[in-house]
Amino acid sequence: MDIKKITDGLSVSGQVQLDDMEKLKRRGFRAVVCNRPDGEAPDQPTHEEIAKAAQAAGLEFLYLPVTPGMVTEETADAFRTALTELPGPVFGYCRTGTRTTTLWSLAMAKDKSVVDILAATKAAGYDMTGVARRIANGGVTPTDSVEDAKHEVVIIGGGAAGVAVAASLKARKADLDIAIIDPADIHYYQPGWTMVGAGVFEPSTTAKTMGSLIPRGVHWLKSAVAAFEPQNNAVILDGCRVVKYDRLIVCPGLKLDWDKIDGLVETLGKNGVTSNYRYDLAPYTWELVKGLKGGRAIFTQPPMPIKCAGAPQKAMYLSANEWETRGVLDQVDIQFMNAGGVLFGVKDYVPALESYVERYGAHLNFFYNLKAIDGPAKKATFAISIPDEEPTEVILDFDMIHVVPPQSAPDFIKVSPLADEQGWVDVDQITLRHKSFDNIWSLGDVMNAPNAKTAAAARMQAPIVAENLIADIEGKGPQAGYNGYGSCPLTVEKGKIVLAEFGYGGVLLPSFPKWLLDGTKPTRKAWILKEQILPPIYWKAMLRGKEWMAKPEKVSAK
Question: Which residues fall in a coiled-coil region (predicted)?
Fold first, then answer.
């Protein structure tokens, strides 16, 4: 008997035997539901036999048989009623547990989101994507009147990657029928938030309406994705609308898991707790930095992967530079708490960064991961996991703390057939094509290629996906390959940047000759690039299909 927990109130398994009833009682269950009709197998006890054994063990019993492949709405409603009326926790079984799990999924469809239901069932080892449409429709089988949309190319996500790849596709094939699916009203230039937190950019310069950026001729479906049906070339939206596609591009970005740090959500934006990872909080960072005259300033970095791995320390350098300029730096205790074991993943840039750490008197603490914050008390709890040492915890006081939240793939990606074991979209790292579904590509932060998750990476990836998708339409193999390029302009002081540019394996991939701009050194030229050149490149080139310094390299077809 392999018991799998769906919720605190329901666990399931495959076929049980008579002597399992006493075991279930000892494990705390109070009721048993049988969803397997009698007579499916010669060695299967009848429900009457199971009922007698259950009652002898002091368990309530309900027989609610389901024929394989015929889970009716009436049976799902009856199961919902049973979960309400039977004493819990309840144990349900059928041949494998799948029918019981399906019943629960449909019974809960009016109360829980598709993503929550698929996540709970996947965690228990059951794939419910086959009934995702019914779940999205409140547990009821959709009728023929459901209006489906159909496009040649559907793009999930209207962020940097989504708009850029749509524009690159249109630049190659103007008559291509493309739809972008994204529920957001506003599109953000997120690389600018570090500069907002340093008082360099105004917040308004990092935001534009989504409608103003969708390329001309591209449909915008303002909705959230609930589930994928790659075997049917379909995407299910909230409300059970089904969008069909010939080819799919998945680039919804990643999820910021603010709630993974106890107490953080309640105190963000007050009590000295801030983050440049949110549009509305970056101005508060600058407010705190300007107001701090002394005390402890903590800057955190969670475990990888995260969006822009250099951003946590960028905030530290720019803050320290402001305190240095105002003559209060020696009054500030700067602590950088890094869940990883190195300052930066590409060693060539570390010496320059370490010189600024020394200049600002910052203390580096490796293998420190933020677990909890008490905002009113201004205390932060860190888990310390140094290799070959016993894990410990430490509580530190702070006057201000810049928090970078843990990050992961969006929930609707994690529970989908597109995800790898860690929840990221599973692609070939060169062609960016899905490993299992030939008509699906992915780019940006959500896919599992081992590159830096930055806007600069998406700028390079968009033309590659566009080139390979168009080649596929023309019956050709992949034409372009991605070398893992990513860029991280490390703002070490106002007016100077260490321009880190690298690809797979930490190989340096500079855009300029060393005599013009040496990225391993802090330079004024790199600052001008970040402050004055990159924003218009983003808005006026990348998002419009103008691939300046981003033309894809050709590869031979496999």
Answer: none
